[in-house]
């Protein structure tokens, strides 16, 4: 089992950047593929990005391609989401997840964090 804690969210102006972190504890994070999802009020949870166990493969949702970058440091049991060129429509609660496959569906993930809020002002 693994516990996930997200951090790094906040309020930023459109065009700005933020870096989210997801710290894993318990079982070694390198055991899992990791993903980021987000959910805005009144909307369904949306896939953002995923990374394989060794970091060799990444996958992105269409709405963030070219702007967001997922990475991981297995030595620190941490996954990152670098978000650039932020838009108001990126405003959401961002969740970190751990699972067996670096995929874009939430059912591929077994463990979830509590989320960190990102708000982008226009």
Could you please describe the fold and organization of this structure?
The chain is mainly beta and 122 residues long. It contains no helices and eleven strands. Strands 2, 4, 5, 6, 9, 10 and 11 form a seven-stranded mixed sheet that branches. Strand 7 and strand 8 form a beta hairpin. The model has no long low-confidence stretch (mean pLDDT 95).
Quick synopsis:
The chain is mostly beta strands. The chain has no helices and eleven strands. A hairpin with a 4-residue loop joins strand 7 and strand 8.
Q: What topology emerges from the helices and strands here?
A:
Elements lengths: L1 E6 L2 E4 L4 E9 L6 E7 L6 E6 L6 E3 L7 E6 L4 E6 L8 E8 L9 E4 L3 E6 L1
Parallel strand pairs: 2-11
Antiparallel strand pairs: 1-3, 3-8, 4-5, 4-9, 5-6, 7-8, 9-10, 9-11
Q: What is Rg?
A: 13 Å
Please provide the count of β strands: 11
**What order do the helices and strands follow?**
EEEEEEEEEEE
Report the principal-axis shape. Answer: globular
> Based on helices, strands and strand pairing, what is the structural class?
mainly beta
Q: Which residue ranges are poorly predicted, with pLDDT under 50 across at least 5 consecutive positions?
A: none
Helix content: under 10%
Given the structure, what is the number of helices?
A: 0
Strand content: over 45%
What's the main sheet like?
7 strands, mixed
The N- and C-terminal alpha carbons lie at a distance of: 40 Å
Q: How much is the average pLDDT?
A: 95
């Amino acid at each position: 089992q693994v516990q996930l804690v997200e951090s790094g969210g906040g309020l930023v102006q459109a065009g700005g950047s933020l870096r989210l972190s997801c710290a894993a504890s318990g079982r070694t994070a390198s055991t899992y593929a990791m993903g980021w999802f987000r959910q805005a009020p009144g909307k369904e949870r949306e896939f953002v990005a995923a990374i394989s166990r060794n970091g060799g493969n990444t996958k992105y949702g269409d709405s963030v391609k070219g702007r967001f970058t997922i990475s991981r440091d297995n030595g620190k049991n941490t996954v990152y989401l670098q978000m650039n060129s932020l838009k108001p429509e990126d405003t959401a609660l961002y969740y970190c997840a751990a699972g067996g496959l670096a995929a874009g569906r939430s059912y591929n993930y077994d463990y979830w964090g509590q989320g960190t809020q990102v708000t982008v002002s226009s």
